[in-house]
Design brief:
Length: about 200
């Protein structure tokens, strides 16, 4: 089933985001934007549009047993948040909508969550203000000044270094480092992680 939406996000008649196109033919979509740009309002509205979408934002639960083999569940600090997330996953949503996890989960552990969702084949939409998160997603939308300033496959977005800088974003660390090494002829491709960069330099 085709899942495409064109949305404008408003609060009390004040427009926060204009003409945002979401195409869920991609398995993972990241929306990057500054704090208070309307990302959370967008996510809540999406759940209302399609009841088979599940919205998650750092809710706690102690009533769901995580039977899946997922290493972060052994961390007692994370456990109640993961119980709530896995409860939503168990309902088999068409798309799981996740608001910024950075206040609880550090970057490396967010990657583990994203990788797990890909592994089990659930489409997901994630909103963040951290450019480092982009490398985990197949499609990226960047919101600036109430409009979609950039959108496209993440691999192509991350090649637009000058435009990213104009919007106030640097490239993710290892993307930026490998880009610089490309300039000097040390590499001939972009790397998205420490491991990928290390293998490329060996």
């Amino acid at each position: 089933m085709e899942m495409k939406y064109n949305l404008t996000v408003k609060i009390n008649e004040r427009t926060l985001i204009k003409n945002l196109n979401l195409d869920f033919s991609y398995d993972s979509i990241c929306i990057l934007g500054r704090h208070s740009c309307g990302k959370t309002t967008l996510l809540k509205n999406l759940q209302k549009i399609n009841k088979k979408f599940k919205y998650y934002f750092l809710e706690k639960s102690n009533t769901y047993e995580i039977k899946e083999n997922f290493e972060l569940k052994n961390n007692q600090k994370y456990l109640p948040y993961l119980q709530s997330l896995f409860k939503k996953i168990a309902s088999k949503p068409e798309v799981i909508i996740i608001d910024d996890l950075s206040s609880i989960f550090p970057y490396k552990d967010r990657l583990k969550i994203f990788d797990y969702l890909k592994k089990i084949g659930i489409k997901f939409l994630y909103c963040t203000s951290d450019v480092e998160d982009l490398i985990s997603f197949s499609y990226t939308i960047i919101i600036a000044n109430k409009i979609v300033a950039m959108e496209g496959k993440t691999s192509l977005i991350l090649k637009e270094e000058k435009l990213m800088k104009l919007l106030g974003y640097s490239l993710p660390f290892y993307v930026n480092l490998s880009t610089q090494l490309n300039y000097y002829g040390v590499l001939d491709h972009i790397c998205y992680s420490k491991e990928e960069l290390g293998d490329s330099l060996c």
